[in-house]
Amino acid sequence: MKKKYFFLILCFFNIGFFSVFAQEKDFGHISGNFQTDAQYYIEDSKIGAAAVDEQFLINSYANFVYSLGKFSAGFRFEGYMNSLLGYPNMGGINNGVGIPYRWAAFNNENLEITVGNFYEQFGNGLILRAYEEKMLGVDNAFDGLRVKLNPYKGIYLKGLVGKQRYYWDDGDGIVRGFDGEIQINDLITSFSESDFRISLGGSFVSKYQKEENPVYNLPNNVGAGAGRLDLSYKGFNIVSEYAYKINDPSADNKYIYKPGQALLINTSYSKKGLGIILGTKWVDNMSFRSDRNASLTDLNINLLPEISKNHTYSLAAFYPYASQTNGEWGAKAEVMYRFARNTFLGGKYGTTVSVNYSRIHDIKRTSVNDTTPLWASGTMGYESSFFSIGKELYFQDINVEISKKWSPKLYTIVSYVNIFYNYNILRGASGYEDIKAHIGIIDATYKFTDNIALRGELQAMFTKQDEGDWGLLLLELSIPSWFFVVMDNWNYGNPDTDNRPHYLTAGFGFVKGGNRIQLTYGKQRAGVMCVGGVCRTVPASNGFALSISSTF
Asked: pLDDT at position 21, please?
């Protein structure tokens, strides 16, 4: 790790300690958290878990935050010795130990200044979102300066400049951004008590990266702008944002010069016992990175939020959807209704039914002219009309969930999920059949006492494509401070009759206060893990896993 980071951290805390003696023994406050995940790998040819050179790998981090009055500072230690399999780590770039994240902030009433590393989001993230997701190995934090200003009631301004984290270093590109928001009801006194609320916002983000391509004349500066409107009235709410990006040739779009656009609209309505959500998203050529040659999850400036449901059950999440930055149209609808207690469908304790539907297509593209093929590098690439919808279906999800309490001791969740998955598009493959899967789930919890409970999951997926049918059985026993779990995920319908493996897992854990320790042994299938429309490939593995976390 660079020595300057240690020097900066010492400076941060020296400032804090000098302040201590100037404020009559106010020693401030230190907080933080720690997590380590370690795994011992065992070769298992039956599930495709290959032998590895290094059998024991570990990911760990610890955050430390010091605050005193209007001043705060912190840093994060990270150690990958070496990085767990499946995390972004090409050529060992993520291996190592150091302090890649450090910051200091000063907040004085309506002004906040942050120097060092920080995360930020403008609006819905269509042109800027810096965030961290440990499960995916994503961290595109900024390293630079951020200023937040509230010059008048109802007016909020943000500005930033910096480079983005690229593992243990910063990427080459420089990002500059400005965001403003006006809360009309706060700004205009006569509207302050109104049930009708209005919020207006706008953002502009530019990136600078020196043009060094020997083939194409690439822009050094790329700008993107967005505007948003949020409305609410009692139980009704609408959130909308439109974004536009000038030509940005990159590895993601095969170096074409077409501008990008995106539109996101989410509406909701709720009242006692009823909730309705409707939404749509349209994206055209909206990959936005501070390095035009980056790939996978590296150096993304923006994030296009998913429009499909983010499933938590294993088999329902077997074929997850990844947002398509080069083009997609999607729509979703969800209705949740709670049947009241002491009715025919509600029973003694009530019943909740949720129905969700999402469908995502390609966008419609036409050739620029008769001689230029689609996606031809160095050209405009293609033409498309705003909010056009293509014929090719990427993904469809229809699911129904019924939650019911039967007695003070028994609670169940029953689900049905129907999935269509365009394997070739979403996995970047060719020659595969589209996946059509039916998934059934029963989740039941029985409480023996207030402190002792047994939870069971029974899941089944039926499909004639890919690896065929799967079944999953899970049992989890919880007692004060302890839990025990055993699970079997069985690929019983695999077309390869000689290879229908069981993925057995067993483990236990201890939880008390802010501390949690878990030890498991088992097998993990190869697949794809997604969070928020961003995905990573997970390799097959067999072995022991230890997880320790603590907060203070």
From this structure: 44
